[in-house]
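Appendix C. Worked example: Pyrroline-5-carboxylate reductase
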Amino acid sequence: MKVCYDSPVIIGGGALGGAVAIGLAKSGLSPVVSHPKESRLAELEALGLRLTRDNVQALEASAGPVLFAVKPWLVKDVVRALADRLAGRVCCSMAARVSLEELKSCAPGAKWGRAIPNIAAAVGAGFAGVASDDWDEDERNAMLGLFRREGEAVWVGEKDLNAVSTLSGSAIAFVLMAAEAFIQGGLGVGMSCDDSLKAALATFEGAAKLVRETGLHPAALKDSVCTPRGTTIAGLRALEAKGFKSALIEGLIATYNAG
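Step 2, the predicted output written as structure tokens:
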């Protein structure tokens, strides 16, 4: 079967599967999405996606690669139910902590890989780690290209996917929590909620762009903002006193160890 990368099949249209589908659709592809809940399909329908509640029907609708965006505790059952229809197909699980070996045992005829994207894929600003020992070079390049249509994607060893899941998949929630704190801090010093949000978003985006375009280490850029007896160093001192950096590190490590 010739793989049609323009029309990937996404099994599971929840938060992550929906984000990936939306990002791919915005990039010009035509994904087919299967999801069991009618209410979620109604949300996705407005975006012009090809939708179904039937996984088999989704597989029959396209010869594209099959992306499984199913919860880790469910993905093996879903794969087993479709195993006969996955023979020879390029498949990619986006479920954290479910190994290639486990996936192959559920559908040994498929060509398996794994990817860990994040929900920013929906707006073309995602990050994904991709791994496989089944795909040939063309398949590997095509699948990397698929995820690069909605942000950045890197090829990693499977052993590194848990770290990717921590630093990108989960830690996006940490950044959003920080944004929430920025808004609350803005309110505390007299800014409106709307202006605080605008300032927070611009600050995060600006910091990321500075690091990316200058190539400087974040610490070097941070130090460049500080002046003797200035306001910035006073704020940094207060953050360090509250264990800001340590809290982030421990949060990341706790996330990594949670599986």
